Fold this sequence. Notes:
Layout: H1 2-18, H2 24-49, H3 57-67, H4 69-88, H5 92-122, H6 129-132, E1 144-151, E2 157-163, E3 174-180, H7 194-202, E4 206-210, H8 222-236, H9 238-241, E5 243-253, H10 255-265, E6 286-289, H11 295-300, H12 305-316, H13 324-329, E7 343-348, H14 356-368, E8 373-378, H15 392-408
Parallel strand pairs: 3-4, 3-5, 5-6, 6-7, 7-8
Antiparallel strand pairs: 1-2, 2-4
Amino acid sequence: xxxxxxxxxxxxxxxxxxxxxxxxxxxxxxxxxxxxxxxxxxxxxxxxxxxxxxxxxxxxxxxxxxxxxxxxxxxxxxxxxxxxxxxxxxxxxxxxxxxxxxxxxxxxxxxxxxxxxxxxxxxxxxxxxxxxxxxxxxxxxxxxxxxxxxxxxxxxxxxxxxxxxxxxxxxxxxxxxxxxxxxxxxxxxxxxxxxxxxxxxxxxxxxxxxxxxxxxxxxxxxxxxxxxxxxxxxxxxxxxxxxxxxxxxxxxxxxxxxxxxxxxxxxxxxxxxxxxxxxxxxxxxxxxxxxxxxxxxxxxxxxxxxxxxxxxxxxxxxxxxxxxxxxxxxxxxxxxxxxxxxxxxxxxxxxxxxxxxxxxxxxxxxxxxxxxxxxxxxxxxxxxxxxxxxxxxxxxxxxxxxxxxxxxx
Length: 409
């Protein structure tokens, strides 16, 4: 009897000490998935709050989490599903791992929303949380594609898309926006963000979304030369597209933001001529989405050093110590003067490529010369914060761009 009781107690103790161990395929699967997810998403959380090198895997994941709210929301729902399954299947280790991970992911969903809601309120911008978590993007407009705006000396055709203003009253002239894509000066193409184009069309603007040459085909002055050529072509074709020649605006994101500032501020400068034979254009207003203003500082002070050094090496030809003159010539702040066009700029405070310092330098230089400008620092927002057309960051930016363009057009 006593022996049986001892054996029974030993068996019970053995069961208690081994009950936490995974048993069966499902428990092992849940444990492995949770074990992978915890360090992965914990590092993602770190890189959301401390953004750094874009091409670190978990930093890239953090980047997507900030620019694509639906991505983070879906990820969170999947982890909640795993936790429910772990509880149901009595996977002890998986539960221990997922119980703290799920609240962390929920917090990461709430963090940008609360910060951007507070910012929108401080800027008197009405926003929709529902749109933030929905893609809310459908392009119904059909642009005129591959319209040639010039031909270079070597015979290369330069092309753009024409997005015609909607509901333009008969006999009136529309303001224009020449839009320049980003991509680190080495990649990208026209119509990279068609949602902006369609939105501008609905406000009554005709958008000219342009291509420009890039390395290895392009020389270091060719990209801004192509932008000036597109501007000149638009001026020459104002009658064709019913454009007001006094209301030609520019807009660009990232490298495109840099190029539109550079083209607008340096118009008429002999160091940076247009690529084709076109007239000078007095740019009406500049919309800069997270574009760098001082190329030398940008090279030395950024959060994605390997990426920036690589693209600037291709674009400019080397480092600032090798080509200090090129870096100065390609910096928009070099050309700012009192008659520079009004400028509006946006930067995310978590931008892991272009730092806030670039916009601060731009702000300071524009202020020194008395140029009308607006600067907006979006909290909990990364590079290309406008990638999802319904995001809170995009909603704030659109509201400010709308008011800015209406003021100067």
